[in-house]
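Technical note accompanying the year-one report. For the benefit of new consortium partners, we illustrate the data format agreed upon in the data management plan: each record pairs a sequence with a structure-token string. No post-processing was applied to the example shown here.
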Amino acid sequence: MSLSDDGGYGGDGHRGSEAGQTRTRLPGSEGDLYGAGRRPRTGMSSRNLVTIVGVIVLLLAAIAFANRDGSGNNESPDDSAKGPAAGAARPTSPTGTKPVAGKTSGIATGFAKTEQGAQSAAANYVVALSSDGMYNGARRQEIAETVYAPSVAAARKKDLDRAYSDVGFLGRIGLKPDGTAPKGMTFVSRANPVGTKVESFKGDTAKVSVWYSALFGLAGTKSQTPVAESWYTNTFDLRWLDGDWKTVNFTQKNGPAPIGRDQAAASAEDMTKAVQGYGGFTYAR
């Protein structure tokens, strides 16, 4: 489902002409899904599958030049840089090593200069960049300054401000011009990392993929964009700077998405209670 199909932000579904740039899916507005049973997947078009609602997740994925580092080089490190276990799945059982030393602006920082530390950083950054804080100007600046390397942070902040302050976009996802939810509604934008994978690790650089589910929408009885779930994989290019891992580039792709079980969707009231009663994790792994 491209943005051009559903009137989403950006018109053609993406900006820039670089190959590999991903389209940002937006929430649908085809009626209230609360109380409806989940439909099985069929060969029908995504326009007709009202239970599959696009999620914004990271507007950076819709801004092509915001996904490039200052050198414009988006190539992966040489395969020879991969360690012997690179690409292998790793369980998230406790290792006895503290995953993070502290936090900055509420975001975990101070990761170890190890493969596990890089995985922890990437999982944290997915959570931060997918949070509802991205819709608040001051909080958005804090997130960008914490997550990105100084060499790219300034440009990213400008791009994010331009995207997240677009009144037309905010209206389409049901938010007020200031980025807040209408009275009686609860805005949900939350990433839930499922697993991480080291694609490459060498010296001061690492490439880490994070597979996660995302919840996005407005919880409330009159919501036209009810909370829905989508699945994504983000791959982060990280660089070790001043004693921590920082993002210099990332890409996003859809899925892999599991087959949904035949479960009835929660009522608007139950969804609101769940969102308000269960806090999201600050970091994974």
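Partners are asked to follow this layout when depositing records. The domain at 3-72+81-277 is CATH 3.10.450.50 (Nuclear Transport Factor 2; Chain: A,).
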